[in-house]
């Protein structure tokens, strides 16, 4: 199951799962985009359930739908994330701050809880959380988003300790990836932004999907509680 999967990184992860022979449930807020994403994968390989990740009933009913459709749930990818607040922390609307933490952190915990109780706890499996390099070090303008992703990274480590050995829990921390979500960070100046990266390019969704596929697979069966930076080397320079 991949949350926030109607486009961008989430859809790339879903494509990788299908390419490797798996079946996947996608979630997203908007029904139209979700329908298109499922159609692009093929209804024999994918189903979609529309709803908000911060809605407890949606989380519960989605896990039930997965188990009804596929009879199992081996991997949960927490990809849903929002960033409605931009600017210095002291200037932010606290309502937006609460919403960010609710979606980016609390909902992720809620998804793990539902998946664990529904299947993973008894049968084992893997969780991969999509964090951000902004959760590894401070970044101008997106401070609250970084705070939420730092919390998600810590949540990853804590859950790995609590849910082992049945469930492995890891995270990926992408830098700027060319998605609609990150457009404001590079639009109109992609080459300039890319020059700060040792690999001299921005990421694409498939870069992240490859790392998620590894962490979800048996190849990573002795890896848990880790956060893998998918960053083109930007954190080597002190940047985000």
UniProtKB/TrEMBL annotation:
A Pfam family: adh_short_C2
Xref: SUPFAM superfamilies: NAD(P)-binding Rossmann-fold domains
Recorded name of the encoding gene: fabG_9
Name of the molecule in the record: 3-oxoacyl-ACP reductase
Similarity comment: Belongs to the short-chain dehydrogenases/reductases (SDR) family.
Keywords assigned by UniProt, alphabetized: Oxidoreductase
Keyword Ribosomal protein among record annotations: no
NCBIfam families: PRK07231.1
Sample GO molecular function, one term: oxidoreductase activity
Tagged with keyword S-adenosyl-L-methionine: no
Source organism: Rugosimonospora africana
Alphabetical list of PANTHER family matching this protein: DEHYDROGENASE/REDUCTASE (SDR FAMILY) MEMBER 4, DEHYDROGENASE_REDUCTASE 4
């Amino acid at each position: 199951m991949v949350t926030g999967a109607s486009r961008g990184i989430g859809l790339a992860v879903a494509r990788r799962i299908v390419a490797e022979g798996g079946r996947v449930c996608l979630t997203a807020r908007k029904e139209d985009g979700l329908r298109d994403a499922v159609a692009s994968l093929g209804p024999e390989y994918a189903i979609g359930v529309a709803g908000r990740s911060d809605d407890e009933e949606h989380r519960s009913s989605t896990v039930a739908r997965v188990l009804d459709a596929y009879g199992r749930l081996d991997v949960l990818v927490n990809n849903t994330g929002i960033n409605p607040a931009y600017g210095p922390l002291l200037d932010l609307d606290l309502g937006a701050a609460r919403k960010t933490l609710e979606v980016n952190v609390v909902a992720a915990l809620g998804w793990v809880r539902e998946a664990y109780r529904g299947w993973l706890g008894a049968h084992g499996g893997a969780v991969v959380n999509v964090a951000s390099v902004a959760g590894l070090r401070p970044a101008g303008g997106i401070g609250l988003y970084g705070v939420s992703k730092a919390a998600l990274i810590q949540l990853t480590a804590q859950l790995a300790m609590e849910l082992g050995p049945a469930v492995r829990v890891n995270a990926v921390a992408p830098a700027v990836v060319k998605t609609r979500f990150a457009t404001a960070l590079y639009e109109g100046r992609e080459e300039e932004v890319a020059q700060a990266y040792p690999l001299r390019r921005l990421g694409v969704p498939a870069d992240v999907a490859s790392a998620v596929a590894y962490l979800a697979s048996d190849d990573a069966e002795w890896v848990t509680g880790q956060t893998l930076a998918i960053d083109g080397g930007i954190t080597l320079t002190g940047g985000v």
